[in-house]
Automatic annotation (TrEMBL):
Domain LRRNT per the UniProt entry, residue ranges: 17-51, 364-398
SMART domains per record: LRR_BAC, LRR_TYP, LRRCT, LRRNT
Name of the gene this protein is made from: Chadl
Gene3D superfamilies named in the record: Ribonuclease Inhibitor (3.80.10.10)
Role according to the record: Potential negative modulator of chondrocyte differentiation. Inhibits collagen fibrillogenesis in vitro. May influence chondrocyte's differentiation by acting on its cellular collagenous microenvironment.
Any one cellular-component term (Gene Ontology): plasma membrane
UniProt family annotation: Belongs to the small leucine-rich proteoglycan (SLRP) family. SLRP class IV subfamily.
Protein name per Swiss-Prot or TrEMBL: Chondroadherin-like protein
Range of residues in the leader sequence: 1-15
PANTHER family documented for this protein: ANTIGEN BSP, PUTATIVE-RELATED, INSULIN LIKE GROWTH FACTOR BINDING PROTEIN ACID LABILE SUBUNIT
Domain LRRCT residue range list: 294-342, 645-691
Pfam assignment, any one: LRR_8
């Protein structure tokens, strides 16, 4: 009885402390605060909470010690919370947490202490952020982690020992990034890894040296990479059983390419450019080879491979593309006499890939700085240095010089650092980046110059750094995009110019940035975008313009952007939205942000051309009373209609019906008429008087609809909680 009384007392305390606008399930110790307008982690969450779901809020920053008041948490969901930064120690005190979901946020960088305190964590989901760089040591405190999901980020480079500390990790997911450089020791600290997903990246060659560290891995996904050739003994993975190299650009495979992977059972080579294969020496355990979608030339040149298939009892999937007499014939139906020599040329032999340069020898570390030979790091952070120090070891790959008052970066400021990949110069009071400042940094991929005083740049400043892919110029003093400054950066993928004072985008501002994929311009003062301002960026995928002064959708500027999948226009003073404003990007657009704009009217044809490709649409916190027909948005995964004052009369009946068919939480609420104010559109009783009520209602009879709507109306008036075992701070 004493234990029951204690449990009841704790339940009552938890119920009393349930923060608005959350729902607390005291019996299961769950708290849900979904799709709200929370700007900070609530500090009144019951202490004994085990599962906390905060999806769809607006936290921006997770501060140090944010969850110290809830030490019993085992599951924490922070998806779609607009998080951009994890402060060091953000999760300290969560020693029991086993599941953390941070997907679909705006996190760009993981520092060494960002995930400190999560000693029991088993699953970490970071999918769909904009992580450009991971510092070695970021996962050093996650000794229990078994699944790490980093899909759909902006990673180009993985440094050595980046996953150190993940002793029991079994699945590492790195798909849908832009990886093209892997340190030879990038996977060296993963003894328990069984599955590695590297598909949909920019790898141009099989990263054999890095993969050789994975003795226990059984599945490797490398599909959708521009790999053209698999060289001799390219893959030395002792336990590998499943290898996926589908949808790449393979033209040839060496006979002994897989000789050092003796356990290989399944080889997927679908949708490549292979005209044939040689007998695969050393692959004695192979059971199946998939060659569907290759232009196979079934001439006498394919006979050795065909004989090997029969001798080794390997099942082959694929069909002949030539000669015409055999076109469409499956490989297993062919007989050797049919495979004759004609006038067909053999597959071209690829050029031998150049050897990777050896690391330069180490040198003395500058006084006052710290150099790590294991991680190839150098750091002089916050040392009050007036000049950029020299004489770092020649194999340094990450150099952290943040928070020093350098004021200027002179020519040839970083001699002897040919292997440097990442350079941090944030908060250094820099006003001038001189021509030749980066000369000699031929491997530089990341350059961080945020929180400085730069107002202009010249192209010559980037001379000698042709591999630069990520340039961060946030929080400077630019009043316009430095025209022509990027013409020496053919590999520039991501450009950050957020929180400057840029007033317009003019034609020629982005000249030379032909490979740009992600352009971040939030928090400026942009009023106008010239029709040809984005003409040079035909590969652009993400355009973020939130928090500017645009008064209309820049439709003309969107023409010629066939790959644009994400457009953010949130927090711009766009009051009216006309016909076909997104038509130029309708065939590619997947994520559209139109929230917090004060939007008053949307044309019935504003979304013309948009349809099943749209996956997320944000329209919350606007002023319109109706929205266009979206019945063809069949691919929606997220729809936010919170804080929109819908007028719930018969004209809104189609929206009411459509919302009822969606298996989504949309948050649509009636703003008028008076008797419906505050009711969910989905359950408002005002639609019962409509002439068409009852037609097309799916899944429920009219009487059931009436009961559900009446019940909702009664709950709204009485303030009763919606479900047994839940306490809610407001009805």
């Amino acid at each position: 009885w004493g234990l029951l009384l204690l449990a009841a007392a704790l339940g009552a305390t938890a119920a009393a402390r349930c923060p608005a606008p959350c729902v607390c399930d005291n019996l299961r110790a769950h708290v849900l605060c979904l799709n709200g307008s929370l700007m900070a982690i609530p500090d009144t969450i019951p202490e004994l909470t085990k599962k906390l779901d905060l999806r769809g809020n607006s936290f921006m920053v997770i501060p140090a010690g944010a969850f110290l008041a809830t030490p019993y948490l085992t599951h924490l969901d922070l998806q779609r919370c607009k998080v951009e930064r994890l402060e060091e120690g953000a999760f300290r005190g969560l020693g029991r947490l086993v599941y953390l979901n941070l997907a679909s946020n705006g996190i760009a960088l993981l520092y060494q202490e960002s995930l400190d305190g999560l000693s029991s964590l088993q699953q970490l989901i970071l999918e769909g952020n904009r992580i450009e760089e991971i510092q070695p040591g970021a996962f050093g405190h996650l000794g229990s982690l078994t699944v790490l999901d980093l899909r759909a980020n902006a990673l180009v480079y993985l440094p050595d020992m980046v996953f150190q500390g993940l002793q029991v990790l079994r699945w590492l997911r790195l798909s849908h990034n832009a990886l093209h450089v892997l340190g030879s020791e990038a996977f060296a600290a993963l003894p328990a890894l069984r599955r590695l997903s590297l598909d949909h990246n920019e790898l141009q060659a099989l990263p054999g040296e890095a993969l050789a560290r994975l003795d226990g891995a059984t599945r490797l996904d490398l599909g959708h990479n521009p790999i053209t050739y698999v060289a001799e003994e390219a893959l030395a993975m002792a336990s590998l059983r499943h290898l996926f190299l589908d949808h790449a650009s393979l033209q040839d495979v060496a006979p002994d390419a897989f000789a050092r992977s003796p356990q290989l059972r399944v080889l997927d080579l679908r949708e490549n450019q292979l005209q044939g294969l040689p007998p695969l020496a050393g692959a004695g355990g192979l059971a199946r080879v998939s060659l569907d979608g290759n232009p196979l030339l079934c001439s006498c040149l394919l006979r050795p491979f065909h004989k090997w298939l029969a001798r080794a009892r390997v099942q082959a999937e694929g069909a002949c593309a030539a000669p015409p007499a055999l076109r469409g014939r499956s490989l297993d139906s062919l007989k050797p006499p049919e495979m004759r020599c004609g006038r067909f040329r053999p597959p071209p032999s690829p050029t031998t890939l150049p050897e990777q340069p050896r690391a330069a020898g180490s040198r003395q570390c500058p006084r006052g700085c710290v150099c790590s030979p294991d991680f190839h790091h150098g750091s002089c952070e916050n040392r009050d240095l007036r000049e950029i120090p020299r004489d770092f070891p020649g194999d340094t790959r990450l150099l952290d010089l943040r928070q020093n008052p350098f004021r200027t970066v002179p020519p040839d400021a970083f001699p002897g650092l040919k292997e440097l990949v990442s350079l941090h110069l944030q908060s250094c009071s820099i006003r001038v980046l001189h021509p030749g400042a980066l000369r000699g940094l031929e491997s530089l991929v990341y350059l961080y110059l945020s929180d400085n005083h730069l107002s202009t740049l010249v192209a010559a400043a980037f001379e000698g750094a042709p591999q630069l892919a990520y340039l961060d110029l946030d929080h400077n003093t630019f009043t316009r995009v430095p025209a022509g400054a990027f013409r020496l950066l053919p590999n520039l993928i991501s450009l950050h110019l957020q929180h400057n004072a840029i007033g317009e985008l003019a034609e020629g501002d982005l000249a030379g940035a032909r490979g740009l994929r992600w352009l971040y311009l939030a928090g400026n003062a942009i009023r106008h975008i010239a029709p040809a301002a984005l003409a040079a960026t035909k590969m652009l995928e993400k355009l973020q313009l939130e928090g500017n002064h645009l008064s209309e959708v820049p439709t003309a500027a969107l023409r010629g952007l066939p790959a644009l999948s994400e457009l953010k226009l949130s927090r711009n003073p766009i009051k009216h939205m006309g016909h076909s404003v997104f038509l130029p990007v309708a065939s590619s657009l997947q994520h559209l942000y139109l929230d917090n704009m004060g939007l008053e009217q949307i044309s019935p044809h504003a979304f013309t051309g948009l349809g099943p490709k749209i996956r997320s649409l944000y329209l919350e916190s606007n002023k319109m009373s109706n929205i266009p027909d979206m019945s063809n948005f069949t691919g929606l995964e997220i729809l936010n209609l919170q804080d929109v004052p819908f007028h719930c009369d018969c004209q809104l009946l189609p929206l009411h019906r459509w919302i009822n068919k969606l298996n989504l939480r949309v948050g649509a609420t009636c703003g008028s008429p008076a008797e419906a104010r505050g009711l969910k559109v989905k359950l408002s009783t005002t639609f019962l008087t409509c002439r068409d009520w009852g037609r097309g209602e799916a899944g429920e009879t009219n009487s059931n609809k009436t009961k559900a709507a009446s019940k909702s109306s009664k709950k709204k008036r009485s303030g009763k909680s919606p479900a047994r075992g839940f306490s809610k701070s407001r009805a």
